[in-house]
Amino acid sequence: MTTTSTMTETPLTARRVDPSAAVARTTSRSSVREVWVQVLAMAWRALKKMRRKPEQFFDVLIQPLLFTAMFAFIFGGAISGSVSDYLPVLIPGILAQTALTVCMATGVQLREDMDKGVFDRFKSLPIARVAPLAGPMIADLIRYGIASVLTLVTGLAIGYRPGGGVLGCVGGVALTVISGWSLAWIFTWLGTMARSAQSVQGISMMIMFPLTFLSNAFVPAETLPGWLQVFVKVNPVSHVVSAVRDLFNDGAVTAEVGWAVIGCVVVVVIFAPLAVRSYSRKM
Amino acid sequence: MADLGAVRAENLVKEFGDFRAVDGIDLHVRQGEIFGVLGPNGAGKTTMLRMLATLLSIDGGHAEIFGVDVRREPHRIRQLVGVTGQYASVDEDLTARENLWLFARLQGLTGTRAKTIAGELLERFGLQEAADRPLSQFSGGMRRRLDLASSLITRPPLIFLDEPTTGLDPRTRGQMWDTIRELVTDGSTILLTTQYLDEADQLADRVAVIDRGRKVAEDTPDALKTQVGDSTLQLSLADGSDIALAANIVRRLLGEEPVLTPESGRMNIPLPDPNRAADVLIGLREAGLGISSVSVAKPTLDEVFLALTGHGAVDEPQMEAAR
Question: According to the model, what pLDDT value does residue A3 have?
Fold first, then answer.
């Protein structure tokens, strides 16, 4: 073989494939920079799909509009005496609920996606196992953003006047997006474990309802029986809701904000590796 | 380096519960050859390929690709092997161009480089016109071509093709065969599975016959056919009425009994040694008997399969368990 090896620069136009050069070029794992490029490529794929299937935005558009108005007018009088007094309590609660719904969709869609033939190729490519999971989650940041802003706007339209001002609102929305993204790792993990998209949906519902309703999202925790308060107080959703309330209503970065962020980090640290491990095993 | 071989697998085992889908297969594929794995549905071909491609775990035995351990270094293996599956592994929600771009980016090519390569591959596989159409409008053949193109982005030295032409019409099949032959001239090694006996015959330099998770034979297609039995000399006489005379000449020269079809003036003569065919032809000419056609036929791989396994190449009742 006298052909000069120019393969690294131009793999396709090189004259002949040289196995020993190819072996010498291999690496035993993707570098951090490579992983980042892979995650972005997968996010690009997810965005393309979103643009081609706009119906998946249905939940992030309808739920904020419907639930905010409905809950405000139905429970407002009973819980806080009037609709306008209830809004400062309700809006952060609805935000948390909406974020969780989006999380659920993340898991269900991942499961659906994994059944497709293209995942066979993803598995056969030299890419980090986290990329196919993390990519769509980055694209989902857009969905959390839309859902949060829409909920807040609906609130403003029916009379909510947040005391925290613009900065407080930006902070609250940002915290919601971060929390949603972190909690989505739980549902991504479920997506890699479950047998079908339907079962992900079913299990997610069972997790989502207790998490949102057994929290301080819609009612003050003090009105609940003591044993229930114990759960409500450790429920991470309660901390997120309290933190968002502090940001929206007072513009204050309180200890609750710190707890919410810590909670998110803990969830990611536990469930991201679980999800990646379970995904790698499924082959 | 050169004598390491492309694939070196010893005693490979894959179990699904009690069912041994792959039951102790050895496989040695040399660099630069087309190696065919032949067997009916459910014989364990796909399972074996998926194990070697790191898509399934290896339950027993040992496998190396260009000297790299498959079980211990899956990430390296994935850089050396391009896999084209039985069902096109491409993204239905993207266009052909977007698919190629995505796979190129995932393998670390820069954006511009990915774009160039996608364009080159689309052209090479005759997909430029359909490049920006949704895949739902693609025919089976186009999907296969895109799938194969996707496996070639980084020009891997080893290419796995799992039943590359199953379900394709004869013309598309012929095109796929040409493409596969081209890949080998580029220096790639190809490991392909097929349940078509003529495909192995047409493409493969060497063939392993797999049945019920075991390798029952391995050789060149020609040697396999010779193993099974003798060649046959097939003759048609110009004048059918000469057939009795011709049969006498054959008996005298070869000591074999020809099978006669007097109506069409045809006769089939068993040949213990193909070289003896010339004796018969010379004998007939000396006797002044004209011949309208002549051929020496080897047994087909169908007959080979029957002889090796004691049963025909029929599908196994078990499901293709690897899917």
Answer: 41
Tens-digit pLDDT profile for residues A76-127: 888 888 888 899 989 999 998 888 888 888 888 888 888 888 888 999 999 9
Q: Which tokens hold the place of A103?
A: 């999380």
Please judge whether B55 and A18 are an interchain contact, meaning their C-beta atoms are less than 8 angstroms apart.
no
Question: Phi/psi of residue A145, each to 5°?
Answer: -60, -50
- A2 in B contact zone (CB under 8 Å): no
B201 close to B36: Cβ distance less than 8 angstroms: no
Determine, for residues A117 and B189 on separate chains, whether the beta-carbon distance falls below 8 Å: no
Is B316 a domain residue? no
Residues B98, B73 within the same domain: yes
Are A124 and B102 in contact (CB < 8 Å)? no
Average pLDDT over residues A254-264: 91
Query: Tens of pLDDT along B166-188?
Result: 888 888 888 889 989 988 888 89
Identify whether B310 is part of a domain: no
Q: CB distance from B28 to chain A under 8 Å?
A: no
Q: Do B93 and A22 touch (CB under 8 A)?
A: no
* B30 and B110 co-located in one domain: yes
How far is the C-alpha of B73 from the C-alpha of B78, rounded, in Å? Answer: 9
Do B222 and B245 reside in the same domain of the chain? Answer: no
Residue of B nearest to A51 (CA): B93
Whether residue B167 sits in one domain with residue B48: yes
Structural domain count of chain B: 2
Q: What amino acid is encoded at B14 in this protein? A: K
- Res. B112: pLDDT tops 90: yes
What region does B206 belong to: left with phi over 0, alpha with psi -120 to 50, or beta? Answer: beta
Q: What is the domain range of residue B267?
A: 230-298
**A-proximal residues of B, 109-138, CB under 8 Å:** 117, 120-121
- At position A257, the amino acid (one-letter code) is V
Cβ distance B81 to A124 under 8 Å?
A: yes
Q: What is the CATH number of the domain that holds B10?
A: 3.40.50.300
Alpha-carbon torsion B149, B152, B154, B160, what sign?
positive
pLDDT 10s digits, B205-221 = 999 999 889 998 898 98
* A41 reaches B (C-beta below 8 A): yes
Q: Where along chain A do its domains lie? A: 30-214+221-281
- Cα(B150)–Cα(B148) distance, integer angstroms: 5
**A221: number of Cβ within 10 Å:** 16
Find chain A residues with C-beta within 8 A of B68's C-beta. Answer: 23, 26
The CATH number covering residue B242 comes to 3.30.70.100
Residue holding tokens 């969905």?
A143
Pairing outcome for strands B189-194 and B34-38? parallel
First-to-last alpha carbon distance for chain A, in angstroms, is 39
Note whether B231 and B274 are within 8 A (CB): yes
CB distance B284 to B322 below 8 Å: no
Average pLDDT of chain B is 86
Q: Are B267 and B281 in contact (CB under 8 A)?
A: no
Separation CA A252–CA A167 (nearest Å): 10
Q: What are phi and psi of A151, to 5 degrees?
A: -60, -45
Amino acid identity, position B160: F
- Identify whether residues B222 and B242 lie together within a single domain: no
